[in-house]
Structure formats: C-alpha cells, structure tokens
Protein 1
Amino acid sequence: MESLIGLVNRIQRACTALGDYGGGDNAFSSLWDALPSVAVVGGQSSGKSSVLESIVGRDFLPRGSGIVTRRPLVLQLHKTDDGQQEYAEFGHIPRRRFTDFGMVRKEIADETDRITGKTKQISPVPIHLSIYSPNVVNLTLIDLPGLTKVAVEGQSETIVEDIENMVQTYVGKPNCIILAVSPANQDIATSDAIKLAREVDPTGERTFGVLTKLDLMDKGTNALDVLEGRAYRLQHPWVGIVNRSQADINKNVDMIYARRKEHEYFATSPEYGHLASKMGSEYLAKLLSKHLEQFIKARIPSITSLINKSIDELESEMDHLGRPIAVDSGAQLYTILELCRAFDKIFKEHLDGGRPGGDRIYGVFDNQLPAALRKLPFDRYLSVQNVRKVVSEADGYQPHLIAPEQGYRRLIEGALNYFRGPAEASVDAVHFVLKELVRKSIGECQELKRFPSLQSAIAAASNESLEKFRDEGRKTIVRLVDMESSYLTVDFFRKLPQEMEHTPQKGGKPEAAPAVDRYGENHFRRIGSNVSSYVNMVSDTLRNTLPKAVVYCQVKEAKQSLLNFFYTQIGKKEGKALAELLDEDPALMERRIQCAKRLELYKKARDEIDSVAWVR
C-alpha cells in the first residue's frame, strides 16, 4: 500500500505542476480535491510547525512571530531504505535536490515571498515539497496558515476571514483528513482547530486531535480528560505530543534525539505512562499513515470513476480543439482541403434547409420582388397626360392614321425599363444573403476556429466568387428584361377589342356612328389601359423567370463552385504559404498543450491506480 500513497503523491505533484491544486470549479482541480490527504490545522503558536518537524525528523520550516506559514505547504514524505541519504525536492524546481535542510527552510521562505511579497499577506497557491528519508513513513501532509483572531499591522482587515476560508477549502472536502492541533496549556473549549473541525466534520469521523505542549502545563494539572476523550470525544483517539523547547531549538538539538526525549517523557510520566504506547510524534505519523492507506483504498473506485469521466471530457475537448498539425506540405494541403470541405458542407446545409438561412433567399422571391413590382410607378407613367405626350412625340409631324403603333411601342419600352430596378435589387438581395451565409458557415465550422488566417482566406475567396456570380446574375436578368422589350407579343394586341366606327342597326343595316376622336381623352385612356394590361402580363412572366435566373446564376453556382478558384490557388502554394494559412491562435495552441498534458496525466494515473488496485 505504500506505493499507493506514493502514487497519490505523484498525481498531486503533477496536478500542481499544471496549475491545478484544488479549490477550483472544473474537472481538473476536482481530481486534486478527490485525492485523500491530511490537512494540519491549528491556531498561531499552537505548535503546528513543531508537530510537522517531529513527524519528519528534520528542522526545515521557517520560524518567526505572527503568520509564518502564508501559503499552503503540501509535504509529501517518502520512506527510503536504511542508510540512504535524506534529501528534499520542490515541485517548482523538480530537478534540484536539497540535502541541507537549512536551505530547504530558506527556499520555502523565498518561494512564499515570490507570490506574496515581503508582506504578511497570504496566498492559496501551494508549495510542494517532497522529502525522501529512511526516518519517515509514507504520508502526505498539508500545512495551512495558522488561524488567527485579529489582523496585525501590515495585514488586510479581512485576514481572519481569508485564512479561515482558505483552510475550509481544504478541510471542507470529504476526502480530507483533519489533523487538529491544540495546545494543552489552553482550554480545549477555546481551540480554534477543534472549532473549525467541528463545523466541517461534526461527527468527528475525519478528525484526529493532537495535543501539544503537555510539558508546559501548570504543575498539578494534566490533559487526561482530553487525551482519554472525556472533554471532547472524537471517532479517533487523541495523540499527545511533546515538542522541542525554545532552548532546544536555539541549541539546534537533533530531531532524532528530541524524539527519544519525547518517548522518555511519556514512558516515565506518572499521568501519561499508561498511554505511552499511543503518544508521541512517531506514533502519530504511523497512525496517520495507516489511516491514510485505508482511506485511499476505500476511495479507489470513486477516484477511478472521476478519472475516467475526466479523460472522456478531455478527449472531447481535444477533438473540439483539434489535433496538432503535421509539418509536411502534403499533409498541410490535405488538412486545408478537408477544412474547406467542412465549411462547404455547412454552407450547402444552409442553402438546402439543413440549417437556417437558405429560406431568406425564397423570401426575396416571394416577398421582396413582388412588393417591389407592385410599387413601380405605372399609374403615373400611364396617366392620360403622359400617354398623350409619348404618343404625340412618337407621331412626329405626321399623326397616326388608325392605331398609334410607334406610341404603343415607345410606351411599352419605357414601362419595361422600370423592371430593371426590382430585378437588380433581387440579385443584390440574394448576394447579401449568400455573403451572410458564408460568414455564418465559417463561424459554425468548429474545425476552422483554430485557424483565423484560413478563415480570412476562405471568406475572401468566397466573397470574390459571389461577386462574380452577382455580376453574371445581373447581366442575365437585364437580358431577360431587354428581351421583353426587344420583341413584343403580337397576339396580345391582336386580341384587344378594336374601336368601332360603325354600329349595326336593327334590321341589319349599318348606321354611321359618331367618329372616334383619336386625340380625345378616352382614346388615350384606352391606350394606357392596353399598355398596362401588357405590362402586367410581362410582370407576371418576370416574376417567374427572374428567380430562376438568379438561382441559376448565383445560388446554383455558389453550391457547385464557390471555392473552385481557391482550390486552384491553394494547389500552387508552397510549404511556407500553407503553414501561414494554418497559423493557429496562440491562446488556442496553449490551451491544447495544457489539455494534452492533463490528458496524459489522467491516463497515466488511471493505469497506475488500476495496476496497484489489482495487486492489492
């Protein structure tokens, strides 16, 4: 089981290296949170640091007045074979070994200052320290800032709440074992550590009580009520600790020697002698190590489940971000063409109805074009005054004899010219819709999001092609209008009722009728009405043919050959130009790198946990 604790240590170190050290709201930090650990909690000057040094057997923590621990210290202990040299490694400088524990103390202080500055402020970013020694048990301890009741000079007004909130982010998690350190020379009812532990662990299932400074109690008093669970009961037994005195610290008394003195104290104490086998820092370390082993073993299924879920999420994220791009030009060209096809597929789905947007083209033909045709000023153009004017100008110096054919033609040609405006507006409206669909398709193409340069190139090439399609569409619809003007439908006029100059009389004999005034108002009104009927017939025809021309020249071409010219140009590009098109957003590249590192970490953790679990 020792290898299982070591594995948890390695996963925690790897998480921290990736910036995931718990307290977050995403799947990555939740792995750190799910890993069992032991958090050391206590008020300032409760002897918390001395307990840690006693467990390690080394003097390595910074000392001083006020808040000394200003960042969480994740202390991972690794038991080595007897005779091997002790050394320490920090997570932020992993390849450097410290054999001088005085330098370890200095590095902790320097690394703390690096984040918090030389102030009395705190930071939730942990320091990771691994110690390899034959004198330790496999164990992970998290040293947290000491709880305090008031802010001192140089600290923020919220320091009390800030420390308590930070501590609670660790001890509030169900996978955290709480090591609550309280001094024996103070009433246990006023213990900051016990108060906080009771808030997050009211049943005491996760809390181990540690009583320090037993040797500093007033004469005639003892802590048996606490150690035997009568004053405050926990699920686990209380453990008493006797730390080095300040005089011992000043004399640099060896920690191993201090452990022996502690053992002698309990063995010879009249009050605590019957508890000696369950007292002291060595017993505490073994107790915590054994419990941590059982704690980890019981949670292997839930940890494995979380890891598998996180792997699925990370792989989905990697698929979303896209895999790294190959460096050879052939693979890059293939990638660009695949991305273009992905865009083209979405664009066609918009046109064909698989995605919204294509219906707006139908709206141009069904709403905008008919509305524009209805608004044409034919009433004004075919008014009696204008008809008389046009017919008279067409007659010239020699008035028409029967029907003003030249006047008719001129009126019809002038009226048909009005159709150009709505026809060209339909071309422009469809062009605008197609451009908008290109923009939407680029935005909806997940594969393209990685490559802003390629997005711009595809947009530019698509818009260039759409411009050509619009020019061709405009030429075609203008031809349709001109064709209506170039040859009038003769049968239409042959079927019009003629103005009769004679009317039949009863008895079958014709009777002379009043002569028709070919320059009177009724005559010109009839001409205007006839021209209006013909124009309406042409309008109905164009209403059907213009959409066909627009779709043929613009929509159909966009579906079939939107990127054809772009494909031709791409095929001529060399490696450097292709690489520029696949130049990714730096933020996205960094995101993929981090995602890949996390995915590698989780897969490795899953494999190692599985192997250890099977062996066990």
Protein 2
Amino acid sequence: MAFRYKSTTTTTTTIPKEVTILVIGDKSTGKSTLISAMASDSFPSTVPPLLPPTRLPANSFTDSASLFVIDTPSSVVQQGKLSEELKRADSVVVTYACDDNVSFERVSSYWLPELQKLEVKAPVLVVGCKLDLRNERMQVSLESLTTGIMNQFKEVVTCIECSAATLYQVPEVFYFAQKSALHPVDPLFDYDTNALTDRCVRALRRIFNLFDFNLDGIFTDRDLYEFQTSSFGAELRQSDIDQIKTMVEQNVPEGVNSQGLTFRGFVEIHNMFLKKGRTETFWAVLRKFGYGNDLKLRDDFLPVPSKASDQSVELSSAAIEFLKGVFRLLDTDKDQLLRPAEIDKLFDAAPESPWKDTPYKDAAETTEMGYISLNGFLSQWALMTLLDPKYSLANLIYIGCKLKPAAALRVTPRRSEERKKQKTERNVFQCYVFGSKNSGKSAFLFSLLGRPFSAFYTPTTVERYAANNIELIKGTKKTLILREIPEDEVSSFLSKKDCLAACDVAAFVHDSSDGYSWKKSIDLLEKVVNQGELTGHKFPCLLIAAKDDLVPFPRAVLDSFKVAQELKIGAPIRVSMMSGDLNDVYSKIVNAAEHPHLRIPETVFVRKRKQQQQLLHSFIFALAGAAMAFAGLTVRRARANKNSS
C-alpha cells in the first residue's frame, strides 16, 4: 500500500456525521463488487451493473460517522450526472483492475485529469481491485506503480490494492476514504516545505497561549498536564510528561529547557502525531478548541447575537478595556504607538492578520511610518465589529480575550426606534459618503485620518472606509466611520436590499467650484433619499461643499441654500482639505447622527408619498365613519320595525 496522509484543503466548519464516498473508474474494474463486499462482508457471486447508494453503519470504524457510498456508471452518456455527484462527494475512490494494465494507465491519463478539470476538491484514493487475479509472474511493488501518480497529482492521498474475493484490505479502502475526509492533512502540512502550514502553527500558538498560565512562553509540567486533561479527558503521570519531553528534546533540542516545554517543543509534539499517522489525534486537539477544517474558529464557536438590518453590533465597554490593556502590553517602549511588527505579533495566533487587506487596510489613522495610536487601534476594531461582528469576535478570541460573546459585543437598538425616541445610544456612527467623481470624497475620508492633502487625483473604483474617534464638546468620544460609495457604483449599491439600513448619516459631497458636481450631488441625494423612503430607512443628510479654497461656482452657492431650505436639511458645510479648514465637519456629522429625527430631507417624491398616505388615511377614516353611520341607521330601522309590529 502506497500511502500519504493528505487531503485537499476544505472550508468545512463543522464535523460531518456522514461521509459521502464516490467510487469511479473504468468498466469492469470492480467498483460495484468492492462496495458489495464491504456492505455484506462477503464476496458476492453476482452484482448488478450499478448498485443503488449504500449506507454503511456509523460503527463501521472508530470514527462515529456513517459512510454513504455511491456507485457510478462507466458509460460516457451518464457523465453529466457523475460531475454533479463529484461536487457533493467528501472523498473519491478511483478504481483500476490489477489484472488490466490499460485500466491502470487510464487512472493517470483520464480519470485524475478529469477530476482536476472538474475542480473536484475532495481527497482522492487510487484503489487497485481484483488483486487475486494479478499474474504472479508480473508482481511489482505498489510503490513503484504509484509513485508517479502521487507526485503528479497532489490530491491523491492513498494508493492501495485489495481483493473483494478474499476481502483482503477491503475495509482499509473505506477506512482511509473516511479518514481522509474527516481528518485531512493538507490544512496541517505543506509537502513543498515539509513543515506544518503557517495557519496550523498559528492555531497551535493560540492553544499554547491558553495553557501558558505564566505568560512566559513555557509549558511547565502543570501546564502540560492541564492541556492533556482538557484536550483528551485523560491524566498524565509524571513519568509520561518526562517521556514526552525526552522525545521532544531528541528531535528538537530547543523544544525543551530547564523550565519546561517551549512553543517549538509544543509544535513538535503535534509533528510527531503526523509522522505516526495519527491525524485524528491532531484534529481532536484542534476541534476541541473550536477549529474547523479551514483552521478557523467554527461558526458554532462564535455565537454572535442576532440583529435586525437596521441594528448594529458594537464592542462592549469590557471589550474596549481589554483592548486598551492589550495595547499597553504591546507598547513596550511606551511611545503610545504600535509598530506594524507589533500588530503582526498581536495576531500571531490568528489565521492571518485581519487588517492587511481591504476593507481594513489603510482605514485607520497611522503615522507616516505606519505606526498606529490607541485611537486608531480602537477605531480599527470598531470598524471590524460594525462590518463583520463574527470576524471581530473570532479575532478577539485569537488574541486571548476570555469574555463571553454576550459580554464582548452589544447590539444597538433599531435605528427606526431611535428616530422615534429622538435619541440614540450608539457609540459608533456610520456615514455614507456620496458624490460625483473628483468632488473630494476621498480627500474627505483621508482628512478624517489626519493624512496630508494630495493634489494627485485617483478615481475611486471600490468602496472605501475611514474610521476615527471624534472628541465632542462634553469630552465624550464617538467613533465615526465614513463609507465612500463610488459614483459609478451607486446604482448597483442602491439595488441591494436594505443597503441603507446601516446608514446613520448620509453626506453628499460636491466641488463648490464646479456646477456639474453640485447638480450631481443633488441628483444622488434624491436617488438615495427616495430609495430610503421606499425601503423604510430614513436618516439625516448633510451637504458638504468641498474645495472651498477655489473660486465658487456662483449658481451653486445660490442654489445650495435654496435647496437646503426646501429639503429642510441645513446649509452646506463648507470645507477645504487643501487649506485644512474643516469647519468642524466631523463633529457636525456625529451631532446629526445623535439626533436621528432631524435633517431628514423632504424630496418631491417624499412629499408626494406623504400626501398619498394622508389621503389614504383620510379615505379609510371616512370609509370607517360611513360604515359606522350605516350600521347605526340599520339598527334604528330595525328598532322602528320592531316597535311598529
């Protein structure tokens, strides 16, 4: 049997209770007979051309997962159905006949390339059937036969030969098929580097940190004992602990020191699991601490509170205090800033650093060297929690937060309810920023982050975020998140259901020196407000007159005050990013968000809908009155008839 414990990476986040195994191969290679022999534990004298789906009991092997085995036709006519089955399979068995060299050659010339063409992600086993029929004079080692296959096709995890007639290695075929699906190695081991994958090492780092009670990077004997009992429910004797450390030290001298086991030694313990083929033991540890096959915390480990579309999720005060403590701990030189390397260290137990890609990259205030302040640090967390609460919760757990989810996150009241109450309890406000191209939207975001003005214009093609804390007059702080919507993406954006549900304020930016820019901003305002009216989402709106350092377009100045008065949203806020004259615009946005019932525009469309609703209410009221009058008249007539009789 040629064998390597390997499986393609999957994104499974729960442990399956059933494994679907698809058996494919050329005609007469023994597919149906192999399945029947496993199901009946005997060699069938006859088998139909195609077996119906066969379920093997959950107690077939040590893993408590039942096997659902699907036989497949060999005819080309039915290949369309086969491709659909392959997409649903957890593991694939490709058969050849040991007495038929052509069928063996077809494994690498047809079947495996076909699986690659169909982008099958499931692990693959190459299985030789009819081993009892192989010509004794042509005996060759399986390893020599399959080395080329396993080198060329990385998705192949095992090559094994069996005989249904003698039942030789028939159970092993299905055992390895189940094991490759339940306990995959690809997420754990990189065959190119011959080492554990980076994501696997990061997962082990988090688990190590959980039991490093002294926070000194060393597993004492007591730490190792606690890890063992927590992971497997079994105690370790001191002699067992000493034996483990001896084995680790033999393989990795730096894995053990006078105080105990280092992280490198902890990694080596799990390396030994792999070398011994004990992938199920490795996965038992990972799954115990919440990991799925993608080596991220499973969804069932991240119980984020449910919310309506117009509610938001924020960090609790306890979570914020935890993050402040983390910041102080990482800020070893006490300069009130964290370097990029220190941020990377913070997330060394996470699958990856979450702030290196959009939408979080460059979304918080940093210095020219890329150092981040406490304000920027907390703003980044606020943004991540607002956009993806589950992702934020996962990263809190990765960095060592032990608060329960309900204590780490809070769901805000519905925006519609806050508007009725004319007040808000939010600490994080999201402002959608609309405007024409080159109106100054991006500069408006950059200024919130304290970045210097740049005259170089680069059109925005994707949504962009900026987040920072705003200190108000009373000394309180609120987090303001600006979300820039590119002009070309507005129609697509507004077509999405509840696209405006998370909007606290909408800002419409125009270049005060450009008449077209002014007209476009009003067009956008009408589109956005009308869509909000149709979907039941209302919010304060502000007009931002950017580039106030330039000569203003006369008509735009006159129109802007007239339009603002008609819409009842207040005069445009004039700003210049180039001169740094911001006119306290960000505080004004927060102030508008804190009074969600004010500055809500009344467009022509909105006024017409109000009139229609008023007419409808009047009609219903009149209809109800008429119905009551008619009912009263009917009663009086009935009484009159009764008296006359």
Protein 3
Amino acid sequence: MNGGAEYLQSLGLCGRTDPESFKACVPLATHSDLEPYIQRIADGEDSSILTGKPITTISLSSGTTRGMPKFVPFNDELVSSTMQIYRTSFAFRNREYPIKNGKALQFIYSGKQFKTRGGLTAATATTNVFRSEEFKKTMKDIQSQCCSPDEVIFGPDFSQTLYCHLLCGLIFSQEVQFVSSTFAHGIVHAFRTFEQVWEELCADIREGVLSSRVTVPSVRAAVSQLLRPDPDLADAIYEKCSRLSNWYGLIPELWPNAKYVYGIMTGSMEMYLKKLRHYAGDLPLVSSDYGSSEGWIGANVNPLLPPESVTFAVLPDIAYFEFIPLKEEVEEAKEEERIDSSLVYKESEPVGLTEVKVGEEYEIVFTSFAGLYRYRLGDVVKVKGFHNSTPELQFVCRRNLLLTINIDKNTEKDLQQAVDSATKLLSDSKLELVDFTSHADLSTDPGHYVIFWELSVDGDNDEVLLSECCDQLDRAFVDAGYVSSRRVGAIGALELRLVRRGTFHRILDHYLGLGAAVSQFKMPRCVGDSNAKVLQILCDNVVKNYFSNAF
C-alpha cells in the first residue's frame, strides 16, 4: 500500500515488504524525524511523500506535553481501525455488562477546525473521528448513540455544550445505559459542573424552556426540540439531588439503568479515579482502549479489571508493532545521554509482537497505515500475558521524564504515587484535591521540585496539615538519585504551592483557545519553562506556599 512512498524509497527499501529488509533499511523515528515530511503534505505536496492512500486530514495532538500540538497524518485507514477497536472492546464489554438498545450519556466535544497552508482540514484526532459517517454508524451498531444531537457535540462553546449534554442526559435518563467521556477527567468535570447548575437544569425541564445561558442558535434550536414541560421529572430529579450525601452515587441515582462508567482511566487520568468512584457509587468503572493521537494499540478485553490493573490486547492488524526491550535503569548517566529528558534504560534491538516476554517492560514502536514508520511512541508498557497469541499490555508511564534536576529520575507514575501518598493525609479533613501539576524550578540554586495543588476549599485553617502534606510529597519521591541529591543539598526543598480555585479550568480554557478539544485534553503533569503561558497562569494564581522540612 505504502511501498512507493518517497520516504521509504529514499531509504532504499525499493518495494520490499519482508520484515528483515524493512528493519534493515528504515530507522527508528520520532515525530521530529518525520515532521518535515508531514509539514510538506500539510503545505500542499502530494501524500505519496509518506503514503499510498491520500492523507485526507491532519490530526492535532493534545499539545499538553510541548505546549503546542503536533501535526499527525490522518486517513480513512485510521477511521477504520478506530471503529475496529470500538467494536472489539464493546463485544467483550457487553458480554460482562450487557446493555439494552438505549442511549449513552457521552460527554464528547468537537474541537475547532482550520485549513493548513495546502488546504487540508486540521483538527484533533477525536474531532476527525466524531465527524466521520462511520462513527455514527458504529455507535448505532454497538448501542451507544449519544443522548445529545450533533449540534451539541459540534457546538463551538464548551460550557454551553456541557450544559446541554447534562440536560439531554436528564431528559433521556431512563434510557441511558452507560456514562462515558474520552478521558476520566471529562466525566469528573461534567459532574462538578452539575453540582453548580442542577437547579437550573431542573427549572429548564419543569418549564420546558432552555436556559438563556445557551446562546448558540443551532445548539439552542436542536435542544429546544427535545425539551417539553415535565414537572414530574423535574421534581424527581430535585428530590434525588436533595437527598444525596455530598453527591455520592450521583450517577446511579439519576441514571438508574446505567451499567457502568467508561473512559480512559490510566496514566494521568488515575488522579481522577477517587472522585469518579464517588460519583459512580456501586457502578463499575471500565477503562476504555489504548491509543494516542498517532494511532491505536489495543483493546480492553478484560473489562472486569479495575482501571489500576487494566490490560490491553494488541490488535495485530491495525499497525505493524515492534517493542524495544527496556532493561534495568542505568544509575549514573552522562548529561549528554539524557536526550530530551528521557528516562535512561539499557535498550536492546526491537522484537516482534510474538517475541515479547511476560513481566518485561518495553517501549512501543509502530508503523501505521497513515505514514508513521517505526515510530517511537514514547510509552513504556509491561507485558502481563497473552490473549491467544497477542500480548496484553499494561501502561506503565511515558518514557519522558517529568521531573529531573540533577541525577534524579521521576516519571509521571512517580509523581502520581507521591501525590496519592500526600493526599491520604487529607482524608479526615474537608479538603479535597481538585487537580495538580509540577515544575522543575531551576531558577533557584539549587533547583527544586514545585508541586501545584488546587483544593476544593480554602486551607486557611489547615496550615499544619498542609505543611505535613508538603513533607510527605518530598519523602514519597523514593528515586535513589532524588533522595541522595536532597540529602547532600544538590536539590533544594520541595515546594508545595496552592493555587486559587478555578486555576486549572483557566489552563483548560487556554488550551481550548489554542484549538484543543476537551475530548482530547490531558492536564500536563509537568509544566516546563517552554510552556510559558501555562506556567504563568499557575504562578499568577498562587495563594500560599510551603517548603518541605523532610530532609
């Protein structure tokens, strides 16, 4: 299909398709290696630079890692593989949690579209999928049709779209079979919003008139067609909300026929699981499939597993997969070896899909139908077993380091574990962690870790408790390089900075302003100096800070 691509021809592949020739001729690549070719296509050159089939659109990554989105080629093959993943995971999910032919309360959002210099439409990967005819057909086939009309999903204003999603979900409350969003934080954010607007939603349903907050004409017209005066439903919702204790079990209370809550819940989404379980009550949380802006990797074929233990079976026909074995970390690494703040491993030559070993860790390399060849995804996974002959993977972390100042090496997983350890101290207080991120501050001498927290209420009367949280954060980073550096003063005391309520929503608004879609947004867990605007938002909203006394 892609054998005649200019990129492959320039490497001397000459149309050969055997794995040995492919690996001998084509080097491992990162996005920066392929970016010039992708940019040429975006600027108007022919897709044959990278692919046989036309590149129909450009997908945008979330942009939360670098502060700006990457261009990723997108074609019909990626749409087909997305639908294959959806159908596969639904078959396994429906075997454990069978649903009737109802509706889904889906908090999904389309991002902005624009034209590249060469006239291609550019949008987030989720937007490209949601706008495809195949998506609508597949959602119907797997009994997952959204409560909200298309005008809501593709509405230009996030806040208005969210409000209408909630309203449509309540109108069809008896038909909702499950609640979902692309990422777990999308569900948590939706119900945090519900806590603020539920009485207004009840008034809309009681009177049959849509709130004046919805001003987009197409959205307003579409939702108004669904809305009829229903005082009985409004009273029932009001009564149920009034008797809930701190909103525990909100989802099954208002959507009694829902079987589960569904979304990506791994990696940076683990932060939101506690609050999601609070809203879900006894409903199971089911983690959705494993993919990225560049393409899909695997489906969740074990939906009974909790999100913290979920594995993904690689679908071998949606890409050509290789795996770089990652052995024990090198304890001491020269500065020049730390390229792009990447976690240092002893690497071996990539192995094939059936050559991986249970219990070992690997970095994923894949070759997609859309022109990414031997592409290093940057994800570290562990092989937990096999489903028939295909490996089942557990996501471990991103390969890139989040926090490093000296010889320390701390990943997203290490940061999450440190935050989990510290927030346990809040369990007996009224304080609840809303969101967090971090920053390696090199402006001080020595440099030090900064952790930003947004709390649900002001912590003015909890100075001692929050100081203890700061100490615990510092102690919880157990990487040998970090501990030794702290003890000898090569890394300064960890700093916990509390930010105003709503700060992380301002960060979301910033990314939406750059064209990101809520469906694809992931809060950056480390904000580097290059992400200056987000760092400024955080620093401008600090209300209190604490320094650790743990060392």
Protein 4
Amino acid sequence: MSEDGTATTSTDQTAETMSSKEKRKHKVIIVGAGMAGLSSANHLAKNGCTDFLILEGRNRVGGRIVSIDMGSQKIELGANWIHGVLGNPMFELAMQHGLISIINIPKPHKVVAATEDGKQVPFQILQEIYEAYVCFLRRCEEYFLCQYLPPPDIHSVGEHINLEVELYLDGVDCAKEKHLRKLIFDCLLKRETCITGCHSMDEIDLLELGSYTELQGGNIVLPSGYSSILKPLCDNLPNENIVLSCPVRRIHWKRKASRRAGGEATAAAADTILEEDEEEQDDGNESDDSDRTVTEVPVGAGGAEPTQEERRAGEEAARRIKSSTANVVVECENGAIYEADHVICTLPLGVLKEQAETLFVPALPQYKVESIDSLLFGTVDKIFLEYDRPFLNATISEIMLLWEQQQQEDDVEGQERDGQWLKDNWYKKIYSFSKVSDTLLLGWISGREAEYMETLSHEIVAERCTDILRQFLKDPFVPKPKRCVCTSWRKQPFSRGSYTAIAVGASQDDIDNIAQPLYSSPHQSKPSVMFAGEHTHANFYSTVHGAYLSGRTAAQILLTPDSPQEIVMESDSSDLSSWIQGIALD
C-alpha cells in the first residue's frame, strides 16, 4: 500500500470536471496543497483575498502529512510530531482546535539495546554512551554560532563525531568493552540520519548543523493523528478553490507587458513569452526558444508519436499561452491552463531537483538551480508491523539493534553499484523497533537502504523484520506480523524524498536563494513567482512549522500594500522620547 493514493481515472475526471467549471484567471495560483500551500491560502482568505486557486497533484490535501488507521491506532506515514511548543504555530493551531490532550500521562519508556547474538547491554553503559553522544552532537552545533574552526580536514558532522568517539574510546582499555560502546555510537549515528534526513552523517555540513533552530517543549503527538490539523486549515477555504489530481506541467513566468495601442489583435500578437533582460539571454533568440518550449506536445508512452487529438490540444494550449496577457501562465498535465498575477510554488525540494529545469519557462536563474542542487533531500521511511497479540515484554518500549560494524562502503563500491551490497545489507540500517502500541511496532530506515527497501514487497520486508526480531530477542517464536505497511517517500512522484538537510558545502544561503521571489520585470512591485515549503525556511527546514511559516510569509508579501501607508502622529510634546512612544507598529 502506498501512503499517497496516486490519482486514479475517477479522480483525474474530477479534476477535469472541476477545472472546466473554474474561471481560468486568478490573482494567485498556489502550486501544491501541502502545509505551505494551505497556509498561504489560509492567510490570503483570512485577509479578504479569495481570488486564488490551489493546484494539487495528489488526490488529497496534506502533502507529506498523512495518517491512516492501523488496528485501533492512528499511524503517521509522514510528519510524526509537532516539534516544540514555544513559538510553534502548529502547536497553537492544535490547541486552538482542541487537538491536543492537556492531561498528558507519559507512558513508561524503557529502552533496551541488544547485540546480534541476542545479548542485552547493561542500561548504565547505554546511558553513559547516550550522554557522551549528545555532548558530541551539541559540540557540532556550536560551530555555527562560534568563531572557532573545527580540526583540519573535518567538514562533516559524521567525521567530527567519529573523531570524538575515537578519542573517547581511547580511554577504554578492554577491547570487548570498547567494541560494545562503538556499536552503540554507530546505532545512535544511524538514528541521527533519520532525524536529519540523510544517508550518512558524513553528508551533513558541520558548520551549518546549528543553523536549525530547535523550539523548546519536546515533541508532541496529536492523538487524532497529524492529519487532523488539516481540517481547521481547509475549513476556511472554499471547495472550488482547490483542484485535486491536477499536476502542473509548466509555469510560464517571465513576460513582457502587453502593448494595447494597436487594439486587441495587435496586443495578442505582441504578447510573447520573452526574457526581460538581454544580458540574461544565451543568444538573441530567447523568444524563439520559449515559443518552441511552449509548443512542445507531450510524447505518448514508449516515445510514440502524439495522436492528432494530442497535437491539436498542444497547439491550442500553445496558442492560449502565447496570447495571454497575464503575468504568469500555469499549464497542467490534464491540458488545463490557468492565468494568474502571482504564483506561489510550494513543490518539495525533491520535485524541484527533478523538474526545475523543465518546470519553469524561462528556466530559473542559475543561482537558484545551483542552490537546489546543493541542498540535500534525503529519504527516510517507516516500517509498521501489526500483530494479533503482544509479544514484547510489557515494560519495554524500544529495542535498539546493535549491528556489527559493516564492511566499509568504499571497499564495496563495485558491489553496491550492481545492488548486491544493498540486497545483502539494507536491513542493517534499521536501528531500532519501538512500540506504538502493544501490538504495533515501528522501525525507521534512511538513505540508500530506504530507497532499496521501497523496491521490495511488504511481505519480504515483514519476513526480514521477523528474522531480525527473532535474532536480537533470542526468541525463535516471535510471531509474523499480520500486516506490514512501509512508506515509499522517494518513489512518490509528488515528494521524491522526505525532507531537507544542509549537505557539506551548502549553507543557509542556499535556502535563502531558493526562497528568493522572481520578478517578471524590474518595475514590478510584487513578484510573479514566490517559493514556499520547509526547504525555504532558513531555521526551521525539515519541519511542518517551517512549511507553515514560509507559506504565510509568501502570502503576506502579496497582501502588503504597494506603497507604505502614511501614519500621521499628533503629539502635545516636542519631547523625542514621548513621540517615539506614540509610534504604533502594525
């Protein structure tokens, strides 16, 4: 089962029916109905702007927020927690709508760690290593704020932590004890890849780790599922303002102003999609290139020639795009064409990495393309195992899997290329199984191993997980799950991964570059294209609240008056301080 009900024939028809009813010209078009898109739409609606349309590729809203029922539990296939309380708009929204239980009785939390031969590690050792690990991680975060530099040739979080681990273990004399502690450190680093969203912590830039701002208050789970937060957001939006199962093919954004002096026919002929600045053009025929781009007809499956009907539809689309006087024209996969003054693009970074070069006409500025390439959009997947009866000790909440150190990947590059290494070792990236309930377990997996798991059937994954549990619990009678659900975020066409991280060599500047709005001309007061989503928030990337805030910011730019409103202040006193106190900031 996919977490992402991909569009079926019936939903495609729905999109076409809906779009035919809709007017084709809007003030704002929002691409994507994930948290950023819904946040933008909400902010517009609350401030009296209802002339907007949301175009969503999936047949549901929510993007990477999706909950399903599994047994008596509501499980999260995507976003899991509200990260932090203080200053978190998601927490405030959840509280406002009664989605958080005030009386929160914490469940007993007992973690056990076991080696491959089924031996459990004494809790004191586990605690000792965990505390040392947290200390090492905090030291990595300090580089972002401090002026001092890391040791030479240490560029990633993984390299720095491994250096600290090496120095720490030098103080342990017994080889057996040293080896056991190293296994715990390795397990915690695997866990960190799932938190950060990467294949290995060696990919994460050391100097930028501290750029992520953690909000205080811990992780909050919504009892009714994270998806329940979507309802209050959607309640403010008219149904006709959201078109589902309507993927966007192209956004035509850089247009010359229409010249209406010669009447409508002249204006229509004059309106072409052109680059505004000559120096940005590779050659003098940018309009020809652009026109060719717009008239391209989608090629049928297997590279077959388009039918006469497809060709006619393509020509009609090209004609309508060329004759449009709008700032932005959005072309959809189903043939629908919408015009807008502004577009807010909330497509995930994974989709931008894959489609940015073809999605925008003309192409995005080079600085934006480079930043899209520089940032990391990793894969993190979940494995849910549902059982008929409990089998784990009632007091245990999580079992950490201390896998023996794997052969260095550098030594197996050839094998890995042909898939053999991943086939033999993918499951060793699962660092633990935790209890969601007495009869429901959750495992996490990241990186290339997660991508490989997405190619396997759920039955194969369930069998492998059963073998793992039997091995580490030293219990051949661990039952097989009655149901196994695995996510597949890399495979999903409308996400192409899980969330954003700052790779070695990248920085917050890359996030700011992607967020930078695009103007069709230097004289525009409001941008034609804006970008929102977790990948556009420099401090809260990878979170739902980052997506929410970025969407709200994009909408606010459009709502702000073109010229600042003059505020007339009256003061009885000529005293400067009393005058300053009288200034009210909106």
